[in-house]
Amino acid sequence: MPIRAENRMRYPKDWKDISRSIRERAGNRCEQCEAANGEPHPITGSKVVLTVAHLDHTPENCDPSNLRAWCQKCHNGYDAPVRAAGIKARHRATLAIGDLL
């Protein structure tokens, strides 16, 4: 998943190496649905791009037990509730700023 600009500094400098090692650990397959990296996804048909998910949603926590290699479909499904909450929070903050103006 693309890293949000405001979160880039939260990732370690060697994140590329860490994420590569997690994908290699998974045999370049999604650890949830087993879709193969670079191949058509068995459900969506789109090209699989393996991503690395933080189970606790904390970029600083790069312990291998906290990381999973997931296709975009599985990663997005796992992150959806947290992402929705973040969107709502940013929307509320924008409204609050508007009320102050």
Compact description:
Helices cover 40% and strands 8% of the residues. It is mainly alpha-helical and 101 residues long.
- Tell me, rounded to a whole number, the average pLDDT: 90
The side-by-side strand order for the widest beta sheet comes to: 1-2
The major beta sheet can be summarized as:
2 strands, antiparallel
Helix content: 25-40%
Q: What's the helix-strand series?
A: HEEH
| Span between termini | 35 Å
Folded structure, characterized:
The chain is mostly helical. It has 2 helices and 2 strands. It has helices at 15-25, 72-100, and strands at 51-54, 67-70. Strands 1-2 form a two-stranded antiparallel ribbon.
Helix and strand topology:
Layout: H1 15-25, E1 51-54, E2 67-70, H2 72-100
Antiparallel strand pairs: 1-2
Task: List the main descriptive attributes of the protein structure presented here.
globular, mainly alpha, 2 strands
